[in-house]
Each structure stands twice: as structure tokens, then as C-alpha cells.
Specification:
Elements (H helix, E strand, L loop, with lengths): L8 E3 L2 H13 L15 E3 L10
Antiparallel strand pairs: 1-2
Length: about 55
């Protein structure tokens, strides 16, 4: 990486999101109520985060 300090970021599992969305579309029935799905991103803590002193 060329950034200093390395930046903390949120990792999204795009393939899982796509797979879940496709499965929901295939299972869609007009009579069914809308459904929801949760996506659980992963926090990638790097050098840009630290504990606050005090």
C-alpha cells in the first residue's frame, strides 16, 4: 500500500451479497411479503485507528 498510515476500512463480501440477492429473486412469489437479508461486513482495523488516551 502507498498510504501511511494504512487506512482502516470495511470489507464487504460482494460475492455473498450477490449470491443472497440472486437466491431472493429466484424465490420471489408475488403473494409473499417483502423479505430482508442482513449483510455482515468485516472491519479491517489498520494503522489509522487507535485507542484514545485519557
Amino acid at each position: 500500500s502507498r498510504l501511511w498510515p494504512p487506512l482502516t476500512s470495511v470489507r464487504r463480501h460482494v460475492s455473498d451479497i450477490g449470491r443472497t440477492a440472486a437466491a431472493m429473486l429466484v424465490q420471489t412469489d408475488v403473494a409473499d411479503a417483502p423479505t430482508a437479508a442482513s449483510v455482515h461486513p468485516q472491519l479491517m482495523v489498520r494503522g489509522s485507528c487507535r485507542a484514545v488516551d485519557g
